[in-house]
UniProtKB/TrEMBL annotation:
Protein name in the entry: Uncharacterized protein
Taxonomic lineage from the root: Eukaryota, Metazoa, Ecdysozoa, Arthropoda, Hexapoda
Similarity annotation: Belongs to the eukaryotic/archaeal RNase P protein component 3 family.
The organism of origin for this protein: Aphis gossypii (Cotton aphid)
Entry annotated with the keyword tRNA processing: yes
UniProt-annotated location(s): Nucleus
GO molecular function, one term: RNA binding
Entry-linked SUPFAM superfamilies: PHP domain-like (SSF89550)
Length: 194
């Protein structure tokens, strides 16, 4: 993929012709249409072993279900705007991510973003090379060593400033996280979005 110039939006939730025309009018060159999957609904992990055994006894096969939805198809012929598909996965253990990797629809996405729901998963996903973006919430703690590993693997950190609108405590936490990433990474591999 060629390197985009100008404005980019890496997390567009809804797309129609008027939104696409607005992006073109404001000079955007790349947008990523986002699909979010909450993997806590997948049923992968130690707590669901009984449920899986019961499902196997009843003849239900969970492997037939594809947990990743098909990407949104956007028909647009303008060469000024590149539209890609992004998959955002919210995970609470690393096994859920491996199940996503085995999905047939996973191969149809251009960008993979992972939102770890705890610190142990955050440490585990830094070792994977197939992740493009790690979505950091304001409770995420990052060491300089973890940041260096992510830079070497070409993983970007994403900080959402939307939670800043909730209250002043969330605003302070998000600004602290953004400042921490700026200091540790010296302005490398960061994405800020709403």
């Amino acid at each position: 993929m060629k390197v985009p110039y100008g404005y980019c939006d890496f997390r567009v939730e809804r797309v129609n012709d008027s939104i696409i025309n607005t992006f073109i009018e404001y000079g955007y060159t790349l947008i990523a249409v986002n699909t979010t999957v909450n993997c806590s609904l997948l049923g992968v992990g130690n707590s669901n072993r009984k449920k899986r055994k019961i499902a196997e006894c009843n003849g239900e096969n969970n492997e037939e279900n594809d947990w990743v939805p098909t990407p949104k198809v956007i028909n647009h012929d303008d060469s000024k705007l590149t539209i890609v598909n992004r998959l955002t996965v919210q995970i609470s253990n690393i096994g859920q991510l491996h199940r996503i990797f085995n999905s047939q629809n996973f191969k149809l996405y251009n960008i993979l973003a992972v939102e770890p729901l705890n610190d142990q998963v955050f440490q585990d996903i830094l070792t994977l090379s197939s992740i493009d973006i790690i979505n950091c919430n304001f409770k995420t703690s990052i060491t300089p060593k973890q940041y260096t590993i992510a830079i070497e693997k070409n993983i970007y950190f994403e900080v959402s400033y939307g939670p800043m609108l909730v209250n002043y405590v969330a605003r302070q936490d998000v600004l602290s996280l953004a400042h921490l990433l700026h200091i540790k990474g010296k302005s490398k591999v960061k994405i800020y979005l709403s």
